[in-house]
Write a structure and sequence with these properties.
homodimer; alpha/beta; Spermidine Synthase, Chain: A, domain 2; Rossmann fold; 7-stranded mixed beta sheet; 13 strands; globular; EC 2.5.1.16 (chains A, B); Spermi_synthase (chains A, B)
């Protein structure tokens, strides 16, 4: 490595199973010369960085717990054959928690980025889409939500969004990995601000276990903000989990669950819709939104209600425009509005064909309107 | 290079300014050893392929006409700091036309891919979104379209979509680069099938020149399917071009124009909306759709009508479900339907803020509905 090669730009081998800096050590990064080349914007023919940061660029590799030495270049099993890459300005943090590898870097155009087990969870530029949609799709669909549970969501962004709803009296959050919360508080204050709301009750632990001990019918809404269903989140797409969710919701209570990409995971979506139709006796729908830094540029949501007062997800009874103070709460809304809410349920023709259970919902074309 | 290293997998230095295979020579590819490594799915630390195919992966580089030796690794000026990569199974074609570099490769999960000047134009998997949206947004918004002009669109996909409309009597297409048409006919028969419609009249040449000679008010609809506004397509986002378009449209005729990403190019969108508002005296709107292989996973459209019978783009007067035979025409519709049409006009809150001219259209949230 050349002396002084890295001035003003930090990059280092990451997630190689050896790195173990803590939050306060993040400035001691090693600077390989390849990063300099990237900075100089020259053609890069010999990339000697680690696979996840090729010449100063981050790319999503395969999920890699325990197999650091055999990691595949790109080719995540959840989205084989493609990768999205971001230019890395500086690696801010990396460590291994009890559950996953955690990486934070400053990108050149998407702001700070949070990565778990090699998979981008959020960027400062586009986190608004996921946080706002997964929260307001359910909470704007019921009148005066009072009790809400978040499963996962350790970055705090969903809490921030729930806090806009002034009818809410109690927000429980059950996150398994405390390190995610600590990292968010340090590097993503605009998200972690959600933890400052006095209505928030934090529970560190396993959500399956937590839900077993919840009184029946306790919640008006449950939001499952989990990572992809590999590793610790596997249980969260299985039937027993949805049954405990349904049990914890009041009659006519609502669930919104992260549900992957319609371009890549129609089989998984079909399975989730199928399980939810069996479990939730109210309505079950699929909605989607465009998130640039997620695979295929899209994220989906399964949204359900339990038997009870009917819930019309597509015509929200509690529109955000009528929630007092919602627009100004700590940070303005960036993506969500009531038009976007309704539009999110419009499904491409191939989705209706491939996910057979969605064919009859929402109903035919002439029944959508905007003006 | 190792002997016999490339059996069963072809990859080669591409777009280096020297390559000059023609369509029939595509099998004579050179196979560098790095591609083999990618195939074996091992961590790739020393990528020795050309910058656009790193270890058997294609990534979008900067637009590179005439500057092959100084190409930037990733970092396209239209979307700096990020890149989408696809695994390359086989390079099928590469050549330089009079106007641009043309590359076709077989990807591992998106089917065949067409690349112009290093920028992905379409993949077999997701071309449906762009072709269907740019065509049916305008054609379903007017009653009985008869005469249609396509600017660009040499792959034929837009022609295929226009052909679904049985009221259409004449389809003119003005494409500047004949090589794109030839390549599409060879490698993308599902798109190029559009050229087989007897209503199609092909004009090879410059669209600005073509439009100058068009009788005033000739067309019911004009679709501008151009590449990004750098290089040959630069003129197509400037005022004089839109004025010739408006002149060529009948009163109440419609234009649909490719209009980039709302995440990356709000300044460009603002400029286009501004020019169109000055030029088109009917309505001017912005719509978007999710395309996984385009930057930020999204593509936008500016859609306008000239002064005359009012056009309500959001409530199509000619819904696709009522166009006889539209669903079955040569290939089923994969993305577009009337729900998607209307939903495409729902704009995220940040877009309304950043593109000031879009604030008042469409009108507020409570006026969208789906059921």
């Amino acid at each position: 490595m050349e002396d002084g090669a890295g001035k003003g730009l930090e990059c280092q081998k990451i997630m190689d199973g050896k790195a173990n800096d803590n939050v306060n050590d993040s400035d001691k990064a090693i600077i390989p010369s390849c990063c300099l080349k990237a900075r100089a914007s020259n053609t890069e023919l010999e990339a000697k960085c680690h696979a996840t940061v090729v010449s100063g660029w981050f790319s999503e590799p395969e999920s890699c717990s325990g197999k650091a030495s055999k990691r595949v270049y790109f080719n995540n099993p959840m989205w084989p054959g493609e990768a999205h890459s971001m230019k890395v300005e500086k690696i801010l943090y990396k460590d291994k928690s009890e559950y996953q590898e955690i990486l934070v870097f400053e990108s050149s155009t998407y702001g700070k980025v949070l990565v778990l087990d090699g998979i981008v969870q959020l960027t400062e530029k586009d986190e608004c889409v996921y946080q706002e949609m997964i929260t307001h799709l359910p909470l704007c669909s019921i009148q005066s939500p009072k009790t809400v549970l978040v499963v996962g969501g350790g970055d705090g962004g969903v809490l921030r969004e729930i806090s806009r709803h002034n009818t809410v009296e109690r927000i429980d959050i059950c996150e398994i990995d405390k390190m995610v919360i600590d990292v968010s508080k340090k590097f993503f204050p605009e998200l972690a601000i959600g933890f400052e709301d006095p209505r928030v009750q934090l529970h560190i632990g396993d959500a399956v276990e937590f839900l077993r001990n919840v009184p029946e019918g306790k919640y008006d809404a449950i939001i499952v903000d989990s990572s992809d269903p590999v590793g610790p989140a596997q249980e969260l797409v299985e039937k027993p989990f949805f049954e405990t969710i349904a049990r914890a919701l009041r009659p006519g209570g609502v669930l919104c669950n992260m549900a992957e990409s319609m371009w890549l995971h129609t089989h998984l979506i079909q399975d989730m819709i199928s399980i939810c139709r069996e479990t939730f006796k109210g309505s079950v729908h699929y909605a989607w939104a465009n998130v640039p830094t997620y695979p295929s540029g899209v994220i989906g949501f399964v949204i359900c209600s339990t038997e009870g007062p009917p819930v019309d997800f597509m015509h929200p009874i509690n529109p955000i425009e009528k929630v007092e103070g919602a627009f100004k709460y700590r940070r303005e809304l960036k993506f969500y509005n009531s038009e976007i809410h309704t539009a999110a349920f419009a499904l491409p023709s191939f989705v209706k064909r491939e996910v057979m259970l969605l064919r009859d919902s929402p109903t035919p074309a002439q029944q959508i309107c905007v003006s």
